[in-house]
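anyone seen this seq b4? input:
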Amino acid sequence: MVKSLWTAFLLLSSATFGTHFPVKKNILDQSCPYLDSCNSTINENQIETLLTYVDSQINPCDDFYAYACGKWREKHGVHTTATTISETQINRQYEDLFSYLLRNLSAPEHGYPFYGKLLTHYQNCTDLERPNLRRYLDLLGQDLLSSLSSTHWMNILAVLGRYGYHGHFVQMEVRWHNASHHMIFLLPHNRHVNLSLTSEIYSALSDVGSSWPPLDQMQEQFKNLEQNLVRLAKSHSADDTFRNYSLDQIRKEVTGLEWDDAFRMQLGRSLVADHVFQVDDLVAIKGLAEYLNKTDILLLNRYSLARFLSHLLELPHNPMANWVNGKMPRGRVCIRHMRRSLYLPMNYVYERSFYARRRSADELVINRVFKQLQNQLEMRVQRNPFNLSQDLVNSLKAKVHDMRINVGNLPPNVSEKFYRDSDQRWSVGRDFYENHLNSLLYYYTLVADLEGSTNPKERGIWYSFNMHTPEFPDNIDATPYFYCLGNIIIVPYSYLTLPFFHAGFWPALLYGDLGNTLGHEMMHALDTDLVDYDAQGNLKNFSDQLGQVELYNRAVGCLNSSAVMLNERTSDVSGSRLALQTYGGNWLYQLDNGRLYFLQFAHFFCGDEGDQYHDSGSQRLNYSLSQMPQFAEIFACQSGTSMTSADQCPFW
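predicted toks r here
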């Protein structure tokens, strides 16, 4: 039995759909919201794609995910999402570009910044024949390796810190602090991460300095060391939040360490006595330093080198970590590695070779949609549905008002000189290992310099986008995201393509994905976690104030059921409502527009099995839509069906 008019249409279209979408213009809105014209073929192809995933035997009011994504796995298999499809397309573009440039040495791209060095890095990666972890250590310098029994443990940490490693003993690292500053952070030993001393790592280390004990004995020594470190890593103080300390205060509180030498070695410059740090639990750091200064230096330095090799192997997509049967890595493996370790150079190449021609139209559309959502959200905060204090309302409103958006992965509106200057900071070497360490040195030296920079123009550029650390996992850059420290939404290249987005989409397709996606990310600014960051990215106590408001607590409690991460659920629900509130005009209720809008929305979740931060795509989609009366109206869902919820949670 046919469940709805839309199901009837889908059954008809499955038999008759060809090169043209069989609907009348007065049924489907084919206007172009922001451009002079929209390409009908782009829209028709997208609609045809969406329809191929629909299982018309499912009632959309019972399970919309099963209805909209029912044939997804049949076409794409398991563990595939729209995001992985987009990422695969981008990786293939890089691979084709590098192959072309290696065959055409007179191509004009060879004269642009980064291209030549990236090609060298790519060739050295694809030429790998077998793992040689010892090469990483040799590149640190023979002087250092020959003096492990006499070099202070903190000096070894400082050397490794130049390459971004700072995971044990006393951690010294530079982080993005707020919308306009980096700071140096000091933390005690990371008690949540232990070393797995594998035979491969042991083999690479065992020729360093004096003879090593057998592997099993070394593993036992490291295990005992870690147990002591974990015991000391946290003091008995209940308050372990970050606090500001000057270098002079740190020197006085934690004696017996050559702080000045360590910072000079890691950062490449000296620090003045009143230089301010963010410090987590100075009492614990003092206890760790006292213990380490009494412990065998050779053991500590061997442990540091072992942790460093382990860290390098755990960085995303290091070809050494997934070596199979001695085979050299394929081009795409190297490209994925380079996209993480050489973020700025790789994105520059993508912009120039692939994206620049689309940027103007994309920016026009995305910025207009963002501004409309932003205005709507600002009005919603101003209406103050939870009866918050006026000071809190003003702070949250300012956060929404000052929010920025960046289209693509690069800083906006910078000159070619910026990239040429950046290119000069980075060097390539003779092999993959040297290039890998140089890429890490390039990133972390730049960040260290930025922490000490007083040049407002330079700082403005670097804080206008989010240059990912080499440690960031793939999902950070796969879809748009809200970066709380910069109060900015990043729309990465992986989203700026079909099947997610096209500047010439008709309204149902454009708002169904872009409107909902930007709405979701904007609502992260007010979610139960990131709400604590103000308009300038500074950490505040907004959640403490919100927790004292009964209406707010009830709204959160209503949503807080069976969600992996509450802040994702609040953003799913409130972001979708924001999009509908902004764009849910009469066109949405004309036959087919609303249903196409929700099909496009569903496509984002197809195949998504969830992770430690997100529920599965089916849970997220169905829960969000059950919280929208408009969905039930458009699909004529009866009260009591699975996709209608009696509890409409009023979160923002």
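The first helix runs from residue 5 to 16. The first strand starts at residue 170 and ends at 178. kinda curious what u guys think
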